[in-house]
From TrEMBL:
A Pfam cross-reference name: Hexapep
Gene of this entry: lpxD
EC number, UniProt record: 2.3.1.191
Keyword Acyltransferase: yes
Gene Ontology cellular component list: membrane
UniProt protein name: UDP-3-O-(3-hydroxymyristoyl)glucosamine N-acyltransferase
GO molecular function, one term: UDP-3-O-[(3R)-3-hydroxyacyl]-glucosamine N-acyltransferase activity
GO biological process: lipid A biosynthetic process
Length: 304
């Protein structure tokens, strides 16, 4: 595509060359004269450093070295749309290398990549991509347009035991997992089925690699859960919750809509809607900052 075509697609203002053929996307500082890249900063001086074929940005500088600029109101959305014009690497299907139970239903438009296991009474909707080495256990329901990354396990038995005179009795899990439409699940994710009812991931939620979601958890619409997080049993995340990397949520915790959990936090109690928490234990982020400031002040006074 040319800068002119990108500008039309992104509804942006074009500066510089219009008919240059752009061949690939590239990082800002590595982009060459036929590459398209993006810049989300506000420092116009940075644009002088780029010799890219085209830079998608949110500012209109007096001068720039790129062969063209496209000025847009939302750089992140524009860049995502620009990337959609380039072909994705395609995985290879091998239907004879998958196992699908006779009682399972998989829509014909969905793809199962090699070494996928689909258990009894599973229902997989339309336009899904189930990655290699994924296990989908019995009675799991997956909605339309769901992507599951390599090596993930959906519907495994939850971690449930009952104490018995110093030993542990295994608690059977008879429930299921429901993944609603437009959910993305990364690689190496484990989602346990419910004890008696279901574990549910609601539509539009995005889950990063290496996340564990325990039995009976309810994750609302359009949540973001990043890598290496763990959510313990029967917790509820309302719509639009964001959890940053390596955070943990204790069992039976209720996190309100729009709340944000900063990285490496441990959430032991309920979080109010739109609240931002951090730390171990997690508390309102400003309180965590004040506590850290006092701690570091005490340490510096001891050193002196």
């Amino acid at each position: 595509m040319t800068p002119r075509e990108f500008a039309e697609l992104l509804k942006g203002k074009l500066l510089g060359e219009a008919e240059l053929e752009l061949t690939r996307p590239a990082p800002f500082f590595a982009a060459g004269s036929r590459d398209v890249t993006f810049y989300q900063g506000e420092d116009a001086g940075e644009l002088v450093k780029s010799g890219a074929g085209c830079v998608i940005c949110g500012i209109e500088p007096d001068r720039f070295n790129a062969r063209s600029l496209i000025v847009v109101s939302d750089v992140g959305k524009a860049w995502a749309k620009a990337l959609e014009t380039f072909p994705l690497p395609q995985e290879e299907d091998k239907p004879n290398l998958t196992f699908v139970s006779d009682s399972a239903t998989v829509d014909a438009s969905s793809r199962l990549l090699p070494f996928t296991y689909v258990g009894p009474d599973v229902d997989i909707g339309a336009d899904c991509v189930i990655g290699p080495n994924v296990t989908v256990h019995a009675r799991t329901v997956i909605g339309n347009n769901v992507r599951v990354g390599a090596g993930s396990v959906i519907g495994s038995e939850g971690f449930g035991y009952v104490g018995d005179n110093g030993k542990y009795l295994h608690l059977p899990h008879l429930g299921s997992v429901v993944i609603e439409e437009n959910v993305d699940i990364g690689a190496g994710v484990c989602i346990d089925r419910g004890t008696m009812a279901e574990t549910r991931i609601c539509k539009g939620t995005k889950i990063d690699n290496l996340v564990h979601i325990a039995h009976n958890v309810l994750i609302g619409r359009n949540c973001i859960i990043t890598g290496q997080c763990g959510i313990a049993g029967s917790s509820i995340l309302e719509e639009g919750v964001m959890i940053a990397g390596q955070s943990g949520v204790s069992d039976h915790v209720h996190i309100g809509a729009g709340a944000k959990i900063y990285a490496k936090s441990a959430v032991f109690k309920d979080v109010e809607p739109d609240e931002i928490v951090s730390g171990i234990p997690a508390r309102p982020h400003r309180k965590t900052l004040r506590a850290q400031a006092r701690l570091f002040k005490d340490e510096s006074s001891k050193d002196s």
